[in-house]
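Shipment paperwork, digital attachment
Item: protein structure file
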Amino acid sequence: MAGNTFGNLFKVTTFGESHGPAIGGVIDGCPSGVQLDLDAIQAELDRRKPGQSTIVTQRKEPDTVEFYSGIFEGVTTGTPIGFVIKNANQKSKDYSHIKDSYRPSHADYTYDQKYGIRDYRGGGRSSARETASRVVAGAIAKQVLSGISFNAYVSGVGSIKLEKPHTELDFSLVESNIVRCPDAEKAQEMEQYIKQIRKEGDTVGGLVSCVISGVPVGLGEPAFDKLHAELGKAMLSINAVKGFEYGSGFAGAELKGSMHNDLFNTDGTTKTNLSGGIQGGISNGMDIYFNVAFKPVATIMQDQETIDKEGNIVNMQGKGRHDPCVVPRAVPIVEAMAALVIVDYWLMNRTIKK
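Attachment content:
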């Protein structure tokens, strides 16, 4: 299996399966001399971990990260940072019924066809549990990027949407509710809907929005390595993501150029920001903002028709502990992947200037 590494200068390679002994990663290219707040890294993992509320999977994992290299007395040494997150609450028997069958809209069939073998316990490597390693790497990237802030939040669950622009939101309220929506009224509505969906044995999708502030002018390359292209790749690599849009997004296709152009102020900032902080693939110093669409979780607690390895039609019902909606736990993952993109381009710019 290829494709387990993300990044160019700041690289993270992840390893492990959902029901193996542990997951983890190795970070290459982290600058030396960065004083790390290890508690802050763990706090990011706590935002992603299962079992944190009534509207997420009830798998109980402490998700405690253990660092094995690259950090001395709390400071990065410039050498590879190796870390492990041990799996503590596997229930592999929950998946014995799918050993020879393929769950609809999962990676079961494609994995089996590609590799000729698959770890059916929780999806193995295809499980979203792998994203915990990304959160660790992203948390370190955030601390390298002092002065740049990453604020993701839930802006939609099913047809329930937060209509306020990000400029009118108080990001300090994101963690004030279990949905991670910075609007109390909408958060309550979303929470009740997720609980209703769970009772029905079904799942629902949603939107995570993210705002990156304090990005310097000049990150990104104008051809194949556009900043927004790399952000898109990063977000689309997250499990269950079906769409990415930045700035005016698809709504911008309905506008005239006279309405869409961001006119300049004398200091180089712009009066509006429909460009989403990126022009010509390069950051312009304004806020970068984007939306990420997550599909409904494929495992539902209802009878479904599927096929087994022999191509026979069989009936299947989902078992185990699954999220009825992934977006509340996806918030720190989106921030982490955004930080990994920005730190990579930030390091590239620093190299060029030297």
